[in-house]
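Contributing new records

If you add data, match the layout below exactly. Sequence lines come first and carry their own label; structure lines follow with theirs. Keep one chain per record. Anything else will be rejected by the validation script.
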Amino acid sequence: MRIDIFTLTKDCKSDACRVSYGGSATTLMGFTQEYDKKGNPLHRDPNITTSNFGCSTCGRQWKVKSRDGEPDQIETVLEPSDAA
């Protein structure tokens, strides 16, 4: 997973955003990968990785879910107005 920080901060009003990585967790579904004769995988990894990010300037927090072969899903979990 590679997160474009601009994608997370595009709605921030401040130009001084400082985003930090808050850890991640991955589901642990086991699966047997099969390959064709050219070595290409026939199935995608079914596991989902959820990563947390936060801005120390405005207080906004994001949750990013990633799955092999799919675009990342970004959810804002705390807006600056919610931050105390």
